[in-house]
Write a structure and sequence with these properties.
The chain is mainly alpha-helical. Helices cover 64% and strands 0% of the residues. It starts with a helix and ends in a 9-residue tail after the last helix. The mean pLDDT is 90.
Length: 104
């Protein structure tokens, strides 16, 4: 809250900063996870490696599908293909190898 107030930029509100923090946490702790992957996951409510590690592939695909088809999701993808079963499987496997907070 203090940082958003200090920045004093209309579109950078506390929730945006918290979202960026969650995305950074995922990218730093899940090997191979890219920025736009983290944006998709956080937008869909997955903001911790442990949550991602416990997901089932089909359930995660069902969860992210509506987002990646939305205008916000299309903006995140910037013309890239949405994640497929192979990529989501890799996310989960990598999350199971995620760095702990102590090691990060």
């Amino acid at each position: 809250d203090k940082l958003a107030a200090k920045l004093d930029v209309a579109h950078i509100v506390p929730d945006v900063i918290r979202q960026w923090q969650a995305e950074a946490t995922l990218v730093c702790r899940v090997p191979g996870l890219r920025g736009h992957d983290a944006q998709i996951l956080v937008a869909c409510g997955i903001d911790q490696p442990a949550e991602l590690a416990e997901c089932l592939v089909d359930d995660l695909l069902d969860l992210i599908q509506p987002f990646v088809e939305s205008p916000d999701g299309q903006r995140v993808l910037r013309g890239s293909e949405p994640p497929d079963e192979e990529e989501v499987t890799e996310w989960i496997a990598n999350a199971q190898q995620a760095r702990s907070l102590k090691a990060a």
